[in-house]
Description:
The structure holds two protein chains of two kinds.
Chain A: H1 9-41, H2 44-50, H3 53-80, E1 90-97, E2 100-106, E3 112-116, E4 118-122, E5 127-132, E6 138-141, E7 149-151, E8 157-161, E9 167-173, E10 185-191, H4 193-203, H5 212-220, E11 250-251, E12 256-257, H6 260-273, H7 287-298
Parallel strand pairs in A: 1-5, 4-10
Antiparallel strand pairs in A: 1-2, 2-3, 5-8, 6-7, 6-9, 9-10, 11-12
Helix pairs in contact in A: 5-7, 6-7
Chain B: H1 3-39, H2 52-69, H3 81-94, H4 96-99, H5 108-111, H6 120-123, H7 129-138, H8 154-166, H9 172-180, H10 190-195, H11 206-209, H12 229-241, H13 247-253, H14 258-269, H15 286-293, H16 304-307, H17 323-334, H18 344-351, H19 356-368
Amino acid sequence: MNVLDPAGPDAGRLAELSWILFIGGGAIFALVLAITFFAMQGSDRSRKRLSGNWLVWTGGIAFPVAVLTGLLVYGLLLMGAESRPAEPDLRVHVEGRQWWWRVSYEEPDGSRLESANEIRIPLGREVEFVLTSPDVIHSFWVPSLGGKLDMIPGRTNRLRLTADRPGVYRGQCAEYCGGPHALMALEVIAMPAGEFDAWRAQASSPVENAPARGGELFLATGCGSCHTVRGTSAAGTIGPDLSRLGERRQLAAARLPMSAENIARFITHGQDIKPGNLMPEFRFLTADETAAIASYLAELK
Amino acid sequence: MSRVEALRRFLVRRWKPIAAGAAALALLAASGGVLVAWSGLYSVAASKGHWLVIDRFLRFGMMNSVETHAPDVEPPPLDDADLIRLGAAHYYAGCAYCHGAPGLAMTPVAQHMLPAPPDLTSHVSLWTDQELFWLVKHGLKYTGMPGWPVQNRDDEVWAVVAFLRQMPDMTQQTYRDLALAEVEAEPQGGEEIARGNAPDAVSACARCHGDEAGPPKSELVPVLHGQPREMLENALRAYLSGERSSGIMQTAASGLSSDEVAELAVYYAGLEPPRRTIDTAALSGHGRELAESGDPARRIPACMSCHSESALPVYPRLAGQNARYIANRLKAWQAGQTARTDTAAIMVPIARLLTDDDIAAVSDYFSSLPQAGGAGR
């Protein structure tokens, strides 16, 4: 997660602009320090020279006007470079929720592929993120790929990003959204377009051969009232879709690395791991039951 | 120079000796009091009673205190038959020993308390509903009148108040019908009486919850018939440990051994669910919608995910449950009852998302839903 390590053209422009500002700002600051030093400690001759009106005219008026005009033109050119083709290559709907991300890929046939907290995108293709929120204001920010954009209840914001370099890029909710806001992160996995297409083709089908006992317990515990697992009667939409949970790299909005042990911990002690999150703790489950559910979920890949 | 002015000047000039005198007097009184207590001369014997003047003074203070502290709240309808029945059953178990009951004299032990507990048939009319509520909820210091075992179940306190309002005109027969339902087993002969083999009707669960013969008589009491054994056992253990809050149930469960808890759970889990007249109108509409699908936009999960027949046995089944019990439980959570058991931790946040309309609809829905057979769970 680094603004100065861009992995796509949008982040690249931001990084370029940042460097110009840092270096330019640093140079001007050094110049002002130097002038101040000579004004206080310099010889009589240099002090006399600095006391003239010319310094106000040049340093106070001409210089800022020139620099700011230059920056404005440059900024407008940068923004102009963002003019886009009418249709993006891929559209991903991301809904910021307290305190996770609902992810929904638009499929070529018009249907949706549901997931959460992890977004896979193809390299080199332009992706439009359709950003919404049903509860409070969140902000979608993946620094390595581009700038941030708020997710505002009742409004749809669109952000287009492209990744040039394969990798895993962390994102973070960048607008305070209550309780565990700081623990509301996500990961964007940029992968070669061919791999992405292959993944997407199989991701919408249900996982087969998941451990049966864990699956039964998952339903009997009532998990399905909030979570969906495709191919089962679990079709809840209150919490994240778990259809391919085991495939994700992270758990609980990039709070913990994915593993059966961590899933089990989250089921029984989720409030310790992510205080204030909306999933209740299921402490009455026996260790054995929790482990069965966790390994079932970890096998969904 | 006015008198007030003279007094003011006097006080300004002489405040030091006046203050010193007052302090000395206070010190003298305090040390006198300590001396009396230390000497042990004052008798705390309950058998001797108070001096008349002290007795009057204490009563005067008590009456005024209750009047001042009684809450300014609107009581629930106190002529509610379910509420009266619930109150009667608890009165039988918790209050009658000291206060007597219609047709039953106070025990001699209670009569010799100081102050002696009043005979409520004649005293109830001295108090307003709110004052009675305050008395039952908080008890009376220095008298032996206990407060309600938990302070967050006003609904239960009102049940006792509702019963107390009816008590003065109640016949012994009505009282026994209300408090004992049909559970009362009269000792058959001298031997049974002598040996104490008669069933202990005080702790009999069936007085409130019913048994093979039928469901609970009060709609405010849950149907236990055919509930999962594990859930029943957990509930009783939670009452015993105080994690589940109820003055009535904590009293009823106290004294149960671990084995008895297990036996009771097996018993009720094995009972056939009582037959109900089905209200088909309640089986469709908003209640069904919430039960089967929840309301995802408001983050309300479907009730049936955890309360259906196929759910884990730690969860109660709601089909065939009393509507008033369901509504009362949900409202108690809304009113601030906290989640101290592992299962309540899941239910409390959900209950707080429900509106009054939601609660009415789901309660009616579940009470109308036929319960599957429970035997053998």
